[in-house]
Automatic annotation (TrEMBL):
GO terms for biological process: cell division; cell wall organization; peptidoglycan biosynthetic process; regulation of cell shape. Pfam families: Mur_ligase_C (PF02875), Mur_ligase_M (PF08245). This is UDP-N-acetylmuramoyl-tripeptide--D-alanyl-D-alanine ligase. Gene3D superfamilies: Mur ligase, C-terminal domain, Mur-like, catalytic domain, MurE/MurF, N-terminal domain. One of its GO terms (molecular function) is ATP binding. It comes from Niastella caeni. The gene is murF. The lineage of its organism: Bacteria, Pseudomonadati, Bacteroidota, Chitinophagia, Chitinophagales. Its EC number is 6.3.2.10. Residues 95-278 form the Mur ligase central domain. Pathway: Cell wall biogenesis; peptidoglycan biosynthesis.
Length: 426
């Protein structure tokens, strides 16, 4: 069966699914397989559950006219996504970076939705499976699409661009993340920069944080560069007006928005707000709609959330962590005016040979500020001698927290996803 023939089926049943637990009647089930699972084994069950068709690369013993056999299911899913993408002549905005991808994606989506029918990545579906599923979720009434791209090794972003075909792009930043896969900070820049390479080669537009010299260099040669930042060269310029308890941003160039009172914690979210304003202005969303969209956005999924509970305040930023984001979060927290502050930090994953050194650098930073208590949990934090409280995992940390009976205390809870530091709050 050709991709064109499969696309004709998709047009009749425009919903793709790879997880039998999430199947809805009329879905096309793509039977993916990996080291520890084989979706082919669930193809018939998927049909019984209401799937219109099942795409497999291992023909079942029991034949069924609704079974479509292909050479490789994942490749077919990606090819189908590309074919669907090619039916649109609208902006496809790709977002990648070491930190802030999802918050930026949500803010940009929220702003553009104030002016256009916009589709975006749901949750964290930002990999080789999630991106094609996201593209296939874009309906024919779309006027904009915002696609998040995660990566932990070279050539990954380049491969996503081959079927996303982005027209516009944002690299939030390049920090010390996934060093195990990228090898070095230079490797991170090269890997994330594959998005800009694609835009450069395909007459694209880049939104660039002009405060970062390396992004200025990486974006050189892209036909259209729209600059945002805190300096005079930026097309859209803004500054932090206030950061407690929530971030308030003032835009003094490129838009008439004196104050945006966000529901985000941390001045490190300034670039995320600025690029949302910038994309909104570029696509002619009115200033008042940009302001309202950003102010109405409430973060979720343990990203820059401020939670008040039992007389205490918690900055829950436990969706992920790397040395760059951890440093920014600690420094922001150190600047908060509160009498009693407690750090509860989980280990940072995927740092390769530099992991111990990077954890030691975080400990050195912690020592520069006064805290009521510091709890370091799991990962390489437990391998290092330090004067702070050590816990093996988040469950132990939660037990410790419950035993302390804190009141009127401010907490920063952060760690890599694998540490599940949100467990501290129960």
């Amino acid at each position: 069966m050709t991709i064109e023939q499969l696309y004709d089926i998709y047009r009749q049943y425009p919903s793709a699914q790879t997880d039998t637990r999430k199947l809805k009647a009329g879905d096309i089930f793509f039977a993916l397989k990996g080291p520890n699972f084989n979706g082919n084994q669930f193809a018939l069950a998927a049909l019984e559950a209401g799937s219109a068709y099942a795409v497999v690369d291992e023909a079942p013993v029991t034949p069924d006219s609704r079974i479509i056999v292909v050479d490789d299911v994942l490749t077919t899913l990606q090819q189908l996504a590309k074919y669907h993408r090619q039916q649109f002549n609208i902006p496809f905005i790709a977002i990648t970076g070491s930190n802030g991808k999802t918050t930026t994606k949500e803010l940009v989506y929220t702003v553009l939705s104030a002016g256009y029918k916009t589709y975006t990545t749901q949750g964290n579906l930002n990999n080789h499976i999630g991106i094609p599923l996201t593209i296939l979720s874009v309906k024919y009434d779309a006027e904009m699409a915002v696609i998040e791209m995660g990566a932990n090794h070279l050539k990954e972003i380049a491969s996503y661009c081959e079927y996303t075909l982005p027209t516009h792009g944002i690299i939030t930043n390049c920090g010390k993340a996934h060093l195990e896969g990228f090898g070095s900070l230079e490797g991170v820049r090269k890997g994330k920069g594959e998005l800009f390479d694609y835009l450069r080669a395909h007459n694209g537009t880049a939104f660039v944080m002009w405060d970062y010299d390396y992004l200025q260099t990486m974006s050189a040669g892209i036909p259209v560069v729209v600059k945002y930042g805190t300096g005079g060269a930026a097309d859209v310029r803004g500054t932090v007006q206030q950061s407690e308890p929530f971030l308030t941003v003032s835009i003094d160039k490129g838009a008439n928005i004196p104050a945006i009172q966000t529901q985000l914690v941390g001045s490190y979210n300034l670039p995320n707000v600025l690029v949302a304003v910038t994309t909104g202005k570029f696509f002619k969303v009115p200033d008042e709609k940009i302001k309202k969209a950003i102010e109405d956005y409430i973060p979720s999924n343990s990203r820059s959330q401020l939670i008040e509970k039992n007389g205490n305040k918690f900055i829950l930023d436990a969706y992920n962590a790397n040395p760059t984001s951890m440093k920014a979060a600690i420094e922001n927290f150190a600047g908060i005016h509160a009498q009693h502050k407690v750090l509860m930090l989980g280990g940072m994953a995927e740092l390769g040979q530099e992991s111990l050194q990077e954890h030691e650098a975080i400990i050195a930073l912690i020592k520069q500020h006064p805290w009521k208590a510091v709890v370091l949990v799991g990962g390489d934090f437990v391998k290092i001698d330090h004067p702070f409280i050590k816990m093996a995992n988040a469950t132990e940390a939660a037990d410790w927290f419950k035993s302390q009976q804190f009141n009127d205390t401010y907490f920063l809870i952060k760690g890599s996803r694998s540490m599940q530091m949100e467990k501290v709050l129960g």
